[in-house]
Specification:
The chain is mainly alpha-helical and 454 residues long. 81% of the residues lie in helices and 0% in strands. Helix 5 packs across helix 18 (372-427), helix 13 packs across helix 18 (372-427) and helix 15 runs antiparallel to helix 16.
C-alpha cells in the first residue's frame, strides 16, 4: 500500500507534467528557429511571430481557464490542456504553410495557458501546507526539465535539419500526460466549493496523514466558504483588489526579469558574443536551470519565500548589469576569451538566481494568496498577466536587441529586478508553514498584505 505522503508526491508529479510540456514548447523555438526560417523563408518580424503566437495563445487560454476550472473541475481542466497539447502538436507537424503553422502554435499556446493556470492551483489545493511550497515548485522544476530536454533533443536532431522531427518529440510527453491525468483525484477544495463534502473527505483521507487532520481541514474550508463572496463579486472588496494587484505585479516581475529572453534566444545571444558552438552553452544553461530549481524545492518550505526572493533578486541585478556591460564592450570590439568566459559565468549566475527565486516562488505565492471562492478569478488574472508580459518578451526581444543592443536590453532587465525589491519588501507576504485557510481569514480581516501569512 502506498503511504499517504508518497501518494501526494505521485499526484503532484503527474499534474506537474503540464510544466514539462510548457518547458518543451518554450525551448522548441530556440533550436528549431533557423530551420523554420529556412523552410518558410521568413524575415525577422516573422521569426518573432513563432514565439509570439504561442504566447498570445497562452494569454488567451489563461483568460478563460478560471471559468473552465470552476465549471468542470481541476482534473478535467488538466485533461483539456493535455488534449490541446497533443492534437495541435500533430497539426503543427503537418502544417504546409507558415499561416497554418502559426494557427497551430496559437492553439498549442491555449493549452499552455490553461496548463500554467491549473497545474499550480491544483497542486496548492492537493498539498498539505507543510510541503505545499515544494510541491508547487515541482511544476517549475518540470518546466526547467522540459527546457533542458528540448535543448538536448534539438541539438541531437539538428543533423536532420527538420523542425517537424524536432516538434514530433513533444507528442510523447503530451500523450503520457493525457493518459496520466485521467487517473488523478479531483481537488477536494473544488468539491467542497460544489457542496460535495463526502467525496472531498474521501479524497482527503487518501492524501492526508490522519482523520483528525482531514476533519480540521474540512471544518476550515466550510467556515471560509461562508466568509467570502465568490467570483467577480469579490472585486467590490478592497482586500481582494489588493491581493489581485499583488499577483499581477509578481507575474509581471517574473517575466520582465528577462529570463525568457534567454530561453527563446540564448542561441542568438551566445552567437552574437562570438561563441562558435552556442548550442553547447545553451545546454549548460538548461542544466543549471534544472539543478537550481531542485535547490528551491528543497529549501522554499524551510527558509521561506521572501528570503529566497531577496537572494535571487540580488544576484539577478548584479548579473544583468555585468552581462549588459560585456555586451557593451562586444558592440565595439571582439571579446577576449576572458570576457567570453565571464559572460557565460554571469549568464549562468542569472539563470541560477531566477531558477532559485522568481521562477518557482512567484507561482507558489500566486497559488496561495487568493481565497478559495476567488482562487479561479485571482489566478486567472495573475496568470494572464504572466502571459501578456511573456508575449511582449517573446515578440519584441529581437527588436530590442537590434534597437537598444543586447547591452541596453539587459540593463533594462536589471533595473526591473531592482524595482522587484520594493514589491517583495512592502507588499508580499511570507506564506511558509501556514494553511491556505489561515491566509484567507487574515485577508478577510483586512490585515496589511505583507502580514497575511503570519
Amino acid at each position: 500500500m502506498i503511504k499517504t505522503k508518497n501518494f501526494v508526491y505521485i499526484v503532484g508529479l503527474t499534474s506537474a507534467l503540464a510544466g514539462l510540456l510548457f518547458g518543451l514548447d518554450i525551448a522548441y523555438v530556440n533550436g528549431a528557429l533557423n530551420y523554420i526560417k529556412s523552410d518558410f523563408h521568413l524575415d525577422q518580424s516573422q521569426e518573432e511571430l513563432i514565439a509570439g503566437y504561442l504566447l498570445a495563445g497562452a494569454a488567451f487560454g489563461s483568460v478563460f481557464s478560471g471559468w473552465l476550472s470552476r465549471r468542470i473541475g481541476r482534473k478535467k481542466t488538466l485533461i483539456f490542456a493535455a488534449l490541446m497539447f497533443t492534437i495541435f502538436t500533430v497539426g503543427g507537424i503537418l502544417s504546409q504553410t507558415f499561416s497554418l503553422f502559426l494557427y497551430n502554435r496559437f492553439l498549442i499556446g491555449v493549452g499552455v495557458g490553461v496548463a500554467s493556470f491549473i497545474a499550480p492551483l491544483y497542486l496548492s489545493e492537493i498539498a498539505p501546507y507543510k510541503i505545499r511550497g515544494g510541491l508547487i515548485a515541482t511544476y517549475q522544476l518540470m518546466i526547467t526539465i522540459g527546457i533542458l530536454l528540448m535543448f538536448i533533443s534539438n541539438y541531437e536532431l539538428s543533423y536532420t535539419h527538420s523542425w517537424r522531427i524536432m516538434l514530433s518529440v513533444l507528442l510523447i510527453p503530451s500523450t503520457i500526460m493525457l493518459i496520466s491525468c485521467m487517473f488523478l483525484p479531483e481537488s477536494p477544495k473544488w468539491l467542497m466549493l460544489k457542496g460535495r463534502q463526502d467525496k472531498a473527505r474521501k479524497i482527503l483521507l487518501s492524501i492526508r496523514d490522519s482523520e483528525a487532520e482531514v476533519d480540521s481541514e474540512i471544518h476550515d474550508i466550510k467556515n471560509n466558504l461562508h466568509l467570502f463572496d465568490h467570483g467577480f463579486k469579490l472585486l467590490k472588496h478592497p482586500y481582494f483588489i489588493k491581493v489581485l494587484i499583488l499577483g499581477i505585479l509578481l507575474q509581471a516581475l517574473q517575466q520582465f526579469s528577462g529570463m525568457n529572453a534567454f530561453m527563446y534566444y540564448s542561441g542568438q545571444i551566445f552567437q552574437s558574443a562570438g561563441f562558435h558552438n552556442p548550442n553547447v552553452a545553451t545546454i549548460i544553461v538548461g542544466v543549471v536551470n534544472v539543478l537550481t530549481t531542485l535547490l528551491a524545492i528543497k529549501y522554499v518550505d524551510k527558509i521561506g519565500r521572501k528570503p529566497i526572493m531577496y537572494i535571487g533578486l540580488t544576484i539577478l541585478v548584479i548579473s544583468a548589469f555585468v552581462v549588459g556591460y560585456i555586451f557593451h564592450i562586444a558592440a565595439t570590439e571582439e571579446l577576449t576569451n576572458f570576457y567570453k568566459i565571464s559572460l557565460l559565468v554571469f549568464c549562468l549566475f542569472f539563470i541560477f538566481a531566477f531558477a532559485l527565486s522568481l521562477g518557482p516562488v512567484v507561482w507558489i505565492i500566486c497559488s496561495e494568496i487568493f481565497p478559495l471562492k476567488g482562487r479561479d478569478l485571482g489566478v486567472t488574472f495573475s496568470t494572464t498577466s504572466n502571459w501578456i508580459c511573456n508575449t511582449i518578451i517573446g515578440s519584441y526581444t529581437l527588436t530590442w536587441f537590434a534597437t537598444f543592443g543586447v547591452s541596453g536590453t539587459f540593463w533594462f532587465f536589471g533595473f526591473m529586478c531592482l524595482l522587484g525589491f520594493i514589491l517583495i519588501k512592502y507588499l508580499t507576504p511570507e506564506t511558509k508553514g501556514i494553511s491556505l485557510e489561515t491566509i484567507e481569514k487574515n485577508l478577510q480581516l483586512n490585515i496589511p498584505l505583507r502580514n497575511i501569512g503570519k
